[in-house]
Write a structure and sequence with these properties.
Number of strands: 3
CATH architecture: 3-Layer(aba) Sandwich
CATH topology: Rossmann fold
Number of domains: 1
Strand order of the largest sheet: 1-2-3
Order of helices and strands: HEHHEHHHE
Helix content: 40-55%
Length: 174
Amino acid sequence: MPNANVFGDLTLFDLTQTAVDQVMSLNFTGTLLPCQVFGEVMVEGRRGSIINISSMAAQQAVTRVIGYSAAKAAIDNLTKWLAVEMALKYGEGLRVNAIAPGFFIGEQNRRLLLNEDNSLTERGQIIIRNTPMGRFGEPEELVGTAIWLASDASQFVTGVVVPVDGGFSVFSGV
C-alpha cells in the first residue's frame, strides 16, 4: 500500500487512516482469519502447525514502510500469543511459529531495489551491504524452513519467528 509508506516529501503526518487500515487488514487480519479457521480444525484433532509470514521489517526499523512494518510486528505478536494460547488450552500438539523473510525481489519491491537495468538502487545497495551473505534471497529458500516448521522435526518449537534473511537480522554493519 503506497499510501501507508513514508518517502520523498511524505511524512508520518501525511498517512491516512484508510491507508493504514488497508495495510493492517491485508497483513494482520489476513493472518488472523486463517489462524482462526485452520486453528479450529487443528484444535479438534489436537495436532497441527500454524506457520505465519512475518518480515524483517517487523524486527528492525526499515525506512519508508511504516504501515507494513507495524502490520508485520502485529503478526509477530499474534504468533507468540497464539503459541502460548494453543499450548496452554489445547496441548503440546498445536504449534504456532512464523517465518520472517529478509529481502527477496518481488513485484512489489522491484523498483525500490533494482534499477531498470537490474543494477542495485541506492536502497538495494544498502540492503546488500547489511546482508552478510551479500545477496537477496530466492523464494525457494523459504521452503526448507516451512517444511521444518510443519514437520515433527520441530515438535518442541513454538512461538518463534525464524529469520530467513542471509544474516541481515544479526549484522550490526560493523
